[in-house]
Amino acid sequence: MTETASVAPEPEAVGELYDRLLEAELEGGAFDPNLHIGYWEDPESDLPRAEAVVRFTDQHVDRLGVGPGARVLDLGCGVGGPALRAVERTGAHLTGVSISAGQVAHANRLVADAGLAGLAEFRHGNAMALPFDDESFDAVMAIESLIHMPDREQVLSEVRRVLKPGGRLVLTELSERAPRPAVRHPAVEEFCRVSMLTLADPDAYVPMLHRAGLRLRLFLDITDHTVQRNFRDLAKQIGDVDGLLFHPRDLVGVHEVGCFLAVADRP
Asked: How confident is the model at residue 2 (pLDDT cuts 50, 70, 90)?
């Protein structure tokens, strides 16, 4: 199997979820342009989570291998924070796509306010059927976005289609972690359910990439640099707030969730 949730996410429902989350963040004054986890070289360091989140973005951007004039697709772009970072570090033109209409609108405002509208644009779309022509991009990055998609292989096939020959994909996934228990921890089940995600199966990823027409170049287990430190910091940041769909403290000390980074090319 390539994913292990009892119910696969539905794109429209995921879009509605992120529309609601964005609205709640804006109303509460807690808007964050980056919606993914952080990366710590030393998980016990005193590096603030906000800086670690930017470093996580850089783990992707610095592996894209692009420069000015290149075209990059941000698959599951969120509200535009990683795209802005990619533009600043590479000078490439960035196109983002999200299933959340609210995220797309906010991302376009974000790049306009930054004076980068000529280098970045965002579109509402479904990664299962990308609204782009064949061979449109030099590189694709997908930061924790395939976890929300019901058919990873279909998405990867679409990535292959829109990549130019020799183009590169850089992605991260939350994943199952060995040894896998016979019965999943209830907190992991609840995390997957309320977040509308599935955990990737690392053992199945290489053949899946190959079936999609991509070739693996790098596969890194970055669990120790990301997952538990992220849950701990988020739990402290959130505190005892009531009414959350899921509290990250429930996953502190639960080591069933991993994270990997993969780099693949279109031959």
From this structure: very low
